[in-house]
């Protein structure tokens, strides 16, 4: 009962009156009267223990939620938890999912702290209200501008005006009934996880009922197709129901803005502040009901949205296929092994590769069809050990040249190559692929693809601009500098990378690559995989490999070696404790090299907004950045060492030194976090 008591304490009347973190309008008689959700609060502790009272209140809240749950499966699970699983019940009702720039992502199940139809309905209502508010604000600006012009004209005519401000609809008026400058448009997509399609359909129904012109993708499709649709269809918003590479039990809700809702450079990009907090406020308003779980005030249309024709997918595939430069890189003799890890990328990725002329493709049959259980992997993330084992086995069998592995929603790609020194297949690090693609984009003149999307004129810059996140390798900056390009460093996430003005190419080390931001302004594992194939085929034609190019880059710029430590925790408070320790007791150095520069990223810099994280740079050039994960209960530590290379014959020694140095830095970082003895 210890965990139940700890969780319930956050909600019990003695500590948090009226459970208002869950439902601020909940019909609870004040504690002074001795009731909570109709459960008698007996002051005589000998007759009813505090723990028993907390349990009764929790069960009462859960029963109220269950009475409003539209999903029989989660309703049944909730009744089971009430009867037999007090810890699950407590955790699912401790607070509520917080909507942020990454939207929502969590385990599916009943309660406000899980992904379910009630939570998604409220999220959809919040997004709809925000879109309408943006359209209303634009109308107010137009009215204000017109009023200002009228006053100026009257002044010129010698008359006066009372100067009344543009009329605003009363705050109490429902958003959908207020006049707007335009009718917002939104497109909704979904992957093949459990409940993704029903979450998407109900989102479309809620958007439609709110007066938003709504489009629903015709099937479970990759996230890059949704990101493409936001721009190609000139929509004010896009919603993608996906948990990407999370465990099978999870689902998520990702939001993009576009069209008239944002500036041109932000169209088709994931949200940033203040949109996240504004949507969260609308979600809170939709959740502010007299009874927990009640969504009766959220209207769902029975029809009225448009299911997008398959021509949209064909348009995406044609546009991505056209990225290839057949004049400069004509070679297509490349044997590829592809896996979609039971996700939705198989058909689209293969259609793009074949459309570009790559026909020698071998798919991992066991992982080609979408399967929300992800049965052949312990974790459906190509970064995880073992996730690419089946692909590597097939590559060895068929004598492949390269392995391409998309994550389940296909917005990321991992690359595998055969190491000639060991004869074994291995996965390239995300920073290595990021550098390779950067070098290839330079070889192509600094830009990839073009767009016919309306409103995108001038998004590219005369001088190419490369960008990557602060936790990614510094090698891309050196590649850009040598080519005479600009380079920008951003916070973690494509919501920041994609916003870089004039962006030509951007990436982050977690296998995310944006190779043609004028078409898909987000990470896209399908287009990135295509360019890797184009590069590898050209190299094969002259007897070289991707590993040879990495050696070239090491000779030119030093061997940049990266590693990452991910520390998963049960209690988020552990992450706060470790971050506080790093700030209060920063390490003296790494691998014997003293810290030359410490940056507390939470206070921001002239180049970067504030974020929770710390950065250390040693005198030898070793860099360590530590930050909490934005989507999982993890603390992430990003390490990079740079080893000079005097000549090609010194590469093996440099690689050994890099491995030694990284291992030493890993030990020092763990010691600084209190995970290993000093």
TrEMBL record:
Per its record, what are the GO molecular function terms?
magnesium ion binding; phosphopentomutase activity
What family classification does the UniProt entry report for this protein? Belongs to the phosphohexose mutase family.
Region annotation (Disordered) ranges: 144-181
Needed co-factor(s)? Mg(2+)
Boundaries of every Alpha-D-phosphohexomutase C-terminal domain copy: 567-641
- Cross-referenced InterPro entries, in alphabetical order? A-D-PHexomutase_a/b/a-I (IPR005844), A-D-PHexomutase_a/b/a-I/II/III (IPR016055), A-D-PHexomutase_a/b/a-II (IPR005845), A-D-PHexomutase_a/b/a-III (IPR005846), A-D-PHexomutase_C (IPR005843), A-D-PHexomutase_C_sf (IPR036900), A-D-PHexomutase_CS (IPR016066), Alpha-D-phosphohexomutase_SF (IPR005841)
Q: Which positions carry the signal peptide feature in this UniProt record?
A: none
Question: Can you name this protein?
Answer: Phosphomannomutase
Cite the Alpha-D-phosphohexomutase alpha/beta/alpha domain residue spans from the record: 183-265, 316-415, 430-551
Q: Which GO annotations describe the biological process of this protein?
A: carbohydrate metabolic process; purine ribonucleoside salvage
Compositional bias per record (Pro residues), positions renumbered to this chain: 167-177
Q: Which UniProt keywords apply?
A: Isomerase, Magnesium, Metal-binding, Phosphoprotein
């Amino acid at each position: 009962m210890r965990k139940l008591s700890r969780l319930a304490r956050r909600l019990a009347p003695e500590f948090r009156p009226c459970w208002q973190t869950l439902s601020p309008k909940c019909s609870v008689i004040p504690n002074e009267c001795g009731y909570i959700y109709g459960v008698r609060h007996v002051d005589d502790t000998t007759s009813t223990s505090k723990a028993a009272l907390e349990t009764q209140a929790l069960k009462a809240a859960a029963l109220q939620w269950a009475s409003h749950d539209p999903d029989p499966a989660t309703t049944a699970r909730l009744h089971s938890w009430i009867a037999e699983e007090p810890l699950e019940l407590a955790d699912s009702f401790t607070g509520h999912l917080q909507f942020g720039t990454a939207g929502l992502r969590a385990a599916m199940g009943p309660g406000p702290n899980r992904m379910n139809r009630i939570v998604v309905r409220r999220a959809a209502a919040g997004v709809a209200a925000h879109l309408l508010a943006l359209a209303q604000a634009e109308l107010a600006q137009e009215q204000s501008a017109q009023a200002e012009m009228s006053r100026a004209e009257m002044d010129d005519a010698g008359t006066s005006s009372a100067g009344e401000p543009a009329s605003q609809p009363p705050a109490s008026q429902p958003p959908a009934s207020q006049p707007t400058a335009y009718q917002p448009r939104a497109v909704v997509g979904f992957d093949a996880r459990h409940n993704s399609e029903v979450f998407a359909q109900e989102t479309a129904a809620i958007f439609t009922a709110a007066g938003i012109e709504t489009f629903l993708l015709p099937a479970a499709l990759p996230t890059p197709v949704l990101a493409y649709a936001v721009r190609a269809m000139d929509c004010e918003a896009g919603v993608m129901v996906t948990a990407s590479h999370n465990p099978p039990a999870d689902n998520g809700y990702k939001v993009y803005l576009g069209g008239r809702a944002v500036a041109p450079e932000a169209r088709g990009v994931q949200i940033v502040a203040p949109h996240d907090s504004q949507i969260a406020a609308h979600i809170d308003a939709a959740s502010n009901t007299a009874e927990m779980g009640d969504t009766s005030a959220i209207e769902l249309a029975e029809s009225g949205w448009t299911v997008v024709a398959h021509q949209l997918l064909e348009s995406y595939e044609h546009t991505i296929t056209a990225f290839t430069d057949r004049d400069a890189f004509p070679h297509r003799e490349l044997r590829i092994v592809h896996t979609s890890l039971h996700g939705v990328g198989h058909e689209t990725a293969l259609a793009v590769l074949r459309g570009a002329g790559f026909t020698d493709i071998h798919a991992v049959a066991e992982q080609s069809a979408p399967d929300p259980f992800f049965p052949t992997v312990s974790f459906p993330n190509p970064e995880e050990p073992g996730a690419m084992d089946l692909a590597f086995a097939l590559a060895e069998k068929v004598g492949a040249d390269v392995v391409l592995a998309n994550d389940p929603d296909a917005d990321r790609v991992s690359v595998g190559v055969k190491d000639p020194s060991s004869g074994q297949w291995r996965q390239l690090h995300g920073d290595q692929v990021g550098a390779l693609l950067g070098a290839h984009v330079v070889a192509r003149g600094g830009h990839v693809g073009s767009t016919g999307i309306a409103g995108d004129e001038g998004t590219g810059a005369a001088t190419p601009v490369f960008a990557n996140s602060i936790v990614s390798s510094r090698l891309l900056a050196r590649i850009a500098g040598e080519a005479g390009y600009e380079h920008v460093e951003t916070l973690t996430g494509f919501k920041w990378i994609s916003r870089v003005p004039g962006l030509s190419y951007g990436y982050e080390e977690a296998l995310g690559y944006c190779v043609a931001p004028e078409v898909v302004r987000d990470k896209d594992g399908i287009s990135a995989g295509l360019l890797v194939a184009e590069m590898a085929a050209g190299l094969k034609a002259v007897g070289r490999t991707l590993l040879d190019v990495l050696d070239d880059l090491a000779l030119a710029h030093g061997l940049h070696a990266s590693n990452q430590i991910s520390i998963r925790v049960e209690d988020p408070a552990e992450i706060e404790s470790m971050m506080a320790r790093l700030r209060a007791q920063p390490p003296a150095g790494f691998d014997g090299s003293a810290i030359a520069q410490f940056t507390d990223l939470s206070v921001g810099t002239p180049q970067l907004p504030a974020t929770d994280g710390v950065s250390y740079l040693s005198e030898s050039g070793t860099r360590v950045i530590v930050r909490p994960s934005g989507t999982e209960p993890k603390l992430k530590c990003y390490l990079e060492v740079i080893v000079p290379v005097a000549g090609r014959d010194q590469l093996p020694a440099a690689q050994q030194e890099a491995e030694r140095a990284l291992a030493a830095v890993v030990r020092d970082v763990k010691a600084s976090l209190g995970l290993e003895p000093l």
